[in-house]
Hints:
There is one protein chain. This protein is of the alpha/beta class. The chain has a single domain (about 1-110, about 175-245), classed as 3-Layer(aba) Sandwich (Rossmann fold), CATH 3.40.50.1820. It contains eleven helices and nine strands. The chain has a seven-stranded mixed sheet, with helices on both faces. A two-stranded antiparallel ribbon has the order 6-7. Helix 2 crosses helix 3 and helix 5 crosses helix 6. It is globular and about 50 Å long.
Amino acid sequence: xxxxxxxxxxxxxxxxxxxxxxxxxxxxxxxxxxxxxxxxxxxxxxxxxxxxxxxxxxxxxxxxxxxxxxxxxxxxxxxxxxxxxxxxxxxxxxxxxxxxxxxxxxxxxxxxxxxxxxxxxxxxxxxxxxxxxxxxxxxxxxxxxxxxxxxxxxxxxxxxxxxxxxxxxxxxxxxxxxxxxxxxxxxxxxxxxxxxxxxxxxxxxxxxxxxxxxxxxxxxxxxxxxxxxxxxxxxxxxxxxxxxxxxxxx
Length: 250
């Protein structure tokens, strides 16, 4: 579940979003290796069993249990669900996280429901017969994201987890907020939000305002997958942030 992707120096941990996988960071690995020893992680319920309780705390506990091989403070870069898990980890284990990058995730989705999204996923024509079929259906950016995530079997490409489980994960976000966890974060933070984000308006900017050692970047023209939609800008902002942190010379 924890993958050593190479590089030398202080550890950098990459956390994927809901319905993603460790492989969705593949296009960022070459340049990130210039800044440290890079690790990726496959979250529970994504190609492996889900926690007994589908709570954010259970997912963070599962993550923490896998990090025993990393024995020094790490930079954690998280997209969407991975961003939430990243800051909850930083809040509960402040000595383990030296810096934090959160991509397109906010603390408060209360009142929102995943019902329409669940119906959409269940309508997908699985299995997809080929890579091109997936690219044609989802488009070049989301199609590549799902190609990096789905499970390839003999009859084609299948979602790598239970739709009901994915829905339950996101439904939890509609019943509670994570402002308290964010308030406990002490590590320097970079918050990156797409112009056409899934996040409730203004929340990521507010996160930066509440954190004395953070900065906010809004990426014009990008939606939820900023690191794949605008990879050059994402790289530029993350590298600038990393170079501003002690111990990074890349």
